[in-house]
Amino acid sequence: MENSTIVAALLGLLEGLTEFIPVSSTGHILLAGHFLGFDSAGKTFEVVIQLGAVLAILTLYSARLFAVFRDAPHDPQARRFILSVLIAFLPAVVIGVLAHEFIKEVLFETPMLIAVMLILGGIVLLFVDRLAPEPVHEDAMKLPLGMAVKIGFIQCLAMIPGVSRSGATIVGALMLGASKRAAAEFSFFLSMPTMAGAFAYDLFQNRDVLDTSALGEIAVGFVMAFISAVFVVRWLLGYVSRHGYALFGWWRIVVGSIALLFLISGF
């Protein structure tokens, strides 16, 4: 029990550190769980602790979000922002529900696929960081609705573990003309309904396989994810505004390559 609690804390820390940077938190957690011998019923732990990271975003952006919802009844721009996030969220709802069983029982159980997608995603991120078009949208709260829909469909690629939800949305936003900071912020905002929805649906689907010990591990992972995500979000926007996303591309390639070598070696 003690060892599993320590592993749950480490995985929660890893979740918070990687959720909002484009390296695939799910890919990192599933690979770490594989090599550490950690397995949760229905892979519920890996999904539920993401809610800790969502609460970190809600905490840091609470004043801004409160102002948006307060002003929505009389401010068209506030209503437009809320609509942009909702319509970007919808594709994930439909595809996630329809493909849920395949994603959890096949894709989440294929470490080799995760390692390969980490590498490929890193190459794409390096390419986009250098060759993305000049930004025409500097404010994440003022993206065109059509652009939000496209980002929403691109986000669905992240249902393949190792792709990265934040990576997919950031790359999509950059290629569609968002600045590096606006791309990261819109990814933050879109993560709230997306991850909260995944949490609620996954918890419902796996309600029969949860037990007291699993809930204890989830609680530990949840708290660690919240704390570490707060620090990452505070740091990330300033970093990408100055340096871009190349660091995360190289990180993906290195981690994916090491994991691939271990898997090929039979670990």
Automatic annotation (TrEMBL):
This is Undecaprenyl-diphosphatase. GO terms for cellular component: plasma membrane. It catalyses: di-trans,octa-cis-undecaprenyl diphosphate + H2O = di-trans,octa-cis-undecaprenyl phosphate + phosphate + H(+). Its main location: membrane. It comes from the Bacteria. One of its GO terms (biological process) is response to antibiotic. Belongs to the UppP family. The lineage of its organism: Bacteria, Pseudomonadati, Pseudomonadota, Alphaproteobacteria, Rhodobacterales. GO terms for molecular function: undecaprenyl-diphosphatase activity. Bacitracin is thought to be involved in the inhibition of peptidoglycan synthesis by sequestering undecaprenyl diphosphate, thereby reducing the pool of lipid carrier available. Keywords: Antibiotic resistance, Cell membrane, Cell shape, Cell wall biogenesis/degradation, Hydrolase, Membrane, Peptidoglycan synthesis, Transmembrane, Transmembrane helix. InterPro entries: UppP (IPR003824). The chain crosses the membrane at residues 48-69, 81-100, 112-131, 143-163, 183-204, 216-237, 243-264. Its EC number is 3.6.1.27. Catalyzes the dephosphorylation of undecaprenyl diphosphate (UPP). Confers resistance to bacitracin. It is found in: Cell membrane. Pfam families: BacA. The keyword Cell cycle does not apply. It is a multi-pass membrane protein.
